[in-house]
Inverse folding.
């Protein structure tokens, strides 16, 4: 069930921006799964074991946290604030109008996902992908720093180049958080029914974690969008495939990956993403509900 406004509370709850920023910073503890997911999506012939070895070879444990500082922290704090603020306002308004918690969660998550993509994620996701791509180039003898890659793209393509693939990111985030929050709220409702609890009865911590885990795992159905996003933002010219479209769109990139790697290629990296999705949903739904309730009481 969505967190309700406290009696007497009116207007917009701006504190959710800070709550979202803090809670999404916590999700960066799952950065190794993020790196593995991106590695497998960018190198679709690799198994999870091969991807793990490749990442580990780039610097051991430091390689597993590649891109964390500062890009993942900057991305996490900004997109977390936008996500939770937008989603909470829409979710609370939806429930107030009589919409079911699952539908309200779906709508809130979708809107929050789109808002965070266009407001913050074009640049920060680009920089994280630059880190992965830079090491991919190094494997074939091309040595460039992160900012050399970034400035090369900026000089050649301008702001559009920096935000390349942002539409795919928006589709991914819309389906990501719509699914995660929608499925999590639906699971909460189902658990309440099994427990014999009413809609306004609170769930225990383990029940909420279970509901968020279900939501996070089921939300990975959209993994092809993530693989498309990584391919669209890939900047490795030295490793470019001759069959790769010169001007990428979501649809022709999807077609290219399918022709090159089949349906398995479109779901490459889904295993670490399931773990990542579960962790992020627990943080941004279950734990965030508790933090929002605590802030309201303070």
């Amino acid at each position: 069930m969505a967190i309700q406004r406290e009696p007497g509370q009116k207007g917009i709850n701006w504190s959710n921006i800070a709550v979202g920023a803090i809670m999404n910073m916590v999700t960066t503890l799952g950065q190794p799964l993020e790196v593995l997911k991106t590695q497998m999506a960018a190198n679709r012939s690799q198994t999870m074991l091969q991807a793990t070895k490749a990442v580990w070879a780039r610097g051991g444990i430091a390689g597993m946290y590649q891109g964390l500082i500062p890009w993942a922290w900057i991305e996490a704090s900004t997109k977390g604030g936008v996500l939770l603020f937008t989603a909470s306002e829409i979710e609370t308004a939806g429930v107030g109008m009589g919409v079911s918690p699952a539908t309200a969660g779906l709508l809130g998550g979708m809107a929050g996902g789109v808002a965070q993509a266009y407001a913050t994620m074009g640049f920060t996701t680009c920089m994280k992908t630059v880190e992965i791509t830079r090491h991919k180039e190094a494997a074939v003898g091309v040595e460039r720093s992160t900012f050399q890659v970034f400035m090369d793209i900026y000089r050649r393509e301008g702001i559009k180049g920096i935000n390349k693939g942002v539409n795919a990111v928006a589709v991914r985030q819309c389906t990501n958080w719509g699914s995660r929050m929608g499925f999590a709220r639906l699971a909460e409702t189902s658990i309440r029914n099994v427990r014999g609890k009413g809609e306004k009865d609170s769930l225990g911590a383990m029940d909420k974690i279970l509901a968020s885990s279900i939501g996070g795992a089921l939300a990975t159905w959209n993994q092809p969008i993530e693989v498309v996003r990584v391919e669209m933002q890939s900047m490795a010219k030295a490793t470019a495939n001759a069959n790769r479209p010169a001007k990428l769109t979501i649809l022709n990139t999807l077609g290219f990956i399918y022709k090159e790697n089949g349906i398995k290629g479109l779901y490459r990296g889904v295993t670490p993403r399931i773990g990542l999705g579960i962790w992020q949903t627990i943080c941004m739904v279950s734990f965030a509900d508790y933090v929002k309730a605590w802030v309201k009481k303070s």
About this structure: The chain has twelve helices and no strands. Residues 1-9 have pLDDT under 50 and may be disordered. Residues 60 and 217 are 28 Å apart (CA to CA).
